[in-house]
Amino acid sequence: MIDIRHVSKWYGTFKVLDDCTTHVDKGEVIVVCGPSGSGKSTLIKCVNGLEPFQQGEVTVDGIPVGDRRTNLPKLRARVGMVFQHFELFPHMRVIDNLAIGQTQVLKRGRDEARERALRLLDRVGLRDQADKYPGRLSGGQQQRVAIARALAMDPICMLFDEPTSALDPEMINEVLDVMVELATEGMTMMVVTHEMGFARRVAHRVVFMDKGQIVEDASKEEFFGSPRSERAQQFLSKIL
Ligand code: ADP
Ligand code: MG
Predict the structure, then answer these.
(1) Ligand 1, pocket-test mutation among 42, 47, 54, most atoms within 8 A of CB
(2) Predicted structure pTM score
(3) What is the ipTM of this complex?
(4) Residue among 11, 18, 33 whose CB has most ligand 1 atoms within 8 A, to mutate
(5) Per UniProt, what is the membrane topology (predicted)?
(6) Which strands form 63-64's sheet, in the order they lie side by side?
(7) Is any ligand 1 atom within 6 A of the Cβ of residue 13?
(8) Which residues of the chain register pLDDT less than 50?
(9) pLDDT of residue 86
(10) Nearest CA to ligand 1 atom 6
(11) What protein residues have CB closer than 5 angstroms to ion ligand 2?
């Protein structure tokens, strides 16, 4: 579903991604981790064309992201993205946050969009919050709305960039639970997170990055059992 081949990217003379190669099969969940500044966010943004890259190739469902002829807005509409900060539309009620992409981009009728929005809000446990403005919700609730909003577009895969790292500890699990459920249902997911409990539960593979390189790309069992690189070992010993 997602294929990243020999991707390199520079900011000026600074090489932020250095020959990165990995992939996510359909229905697979990969967790991307590594120290701050190692290039995780940059890599995930290359997948839906939010960041250009100078070398290599990224395809999503066979569509080349770096190709100038690719319709990026159309591709992005099918790739769900959830960021660290919820980025909901603050001036729109929760339900309208979920409906707007459906009506404007997917051209669904208003009733159909609202119905789908309500079903998704139900699924993330927030149906009763549909008419509130995002600012009235807790961080955990807002992040669940952000996930539901992404799902409303019927994405072919989902990208997450540290979706729980801005949350108070007591709200982390309510968001992770939604993500675990998605994973169990077979959603293709690329998840940047340091929540190793999540990785242990649902990841198929773990990618470890350092200084712009993919240092380790291993099955969950291999990664937690005996990471090959010293850098991954050090990282794990610090956060576990
Ligand atoms: P991570 O998500 O792993 O913390 P990032 O992908 O955000 O890492 O950043 C990787 C490196 O690229 C960092 O050193 C960061 O300072 C640098 N960087 C990120 N965005 C820019 C930018 N727009 N211009 C220059 N350097 C950047
Ligand atoms: Mg980041």
Answers:
(1) 42
(2) 0.95
(3) 0.97
(4) 11
(5) Peripheral membrane protein
(6) 14-24, 2-11, 55-60, 63-64
(7) no
(8) none
(9) 73
(10) 39
(11) 41
Distance CA(124)–CA(86), nearest Å, equals: 15
**What confidence score (pLDDT) does residue 133 get?**
97
Strand order in the sheet with 213-219: 79-82, 157-161, 189-192, 29-33, 205-210, 213-219
Going by CA atoms, what residue is nearest to atom 13 of ligand 1?
A: 37
* Per-residue pLDDT at 163: 95
Token couple for 198: 């999540």
Going from the Cα of 16 to the center of ligand 1, the distance in angstroms, rounded, reads: 7
According to the model, what pLDDT value does residue 196 have? 93
What is the SS3 assignment for 30? Answer: strand
Q: How far is the CA of 114 from the centre of ligand 1 (A)?
A: 38
Residue found by looking up tokens 């990217």 in the block: 9
d(Cα 172, Cα 164) in Å, to the nearest integer?
A: 6
